[in-house]
Design the sequence.
């Protein structure tokens, strides 16, 4: 009997869920034009971690990891930029 899902299927599902999780923060920050509750240190550390995940994914040909982390990187850089723009 063949498995219902392949490891890549689980990877793509996990990638979609963890990436989409940042979308509400981007939307909220954009709409309210406020980002004082978002920690800049957390964003910088997270973005650095994402860069390492991207390098890892490229080196291991892990497509779900690569796609998720590139999109998550873009979303978090967007949050960082908005935080800097809306800084009081």
Sequence:
């Amino acid at each position: 009997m063949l498995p219902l899902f392949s490891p890549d299927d689980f990877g793509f599902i996990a990638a979609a869920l963890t990436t989409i999780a940042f979308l509400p923060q981007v939307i909220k920050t954009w709409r309210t034009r406020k980002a004082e509750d978002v920690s800049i240190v957390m964003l910088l550390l997270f973005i650095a971690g994402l860069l390492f995940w991207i390098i890892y994914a490229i080196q291991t040909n892990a497509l779900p990891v690569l796609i998720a982390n590139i999109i998550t990187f873009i979303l978090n850089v967007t949050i960082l930029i908005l935080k800097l723009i809306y800084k009081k």
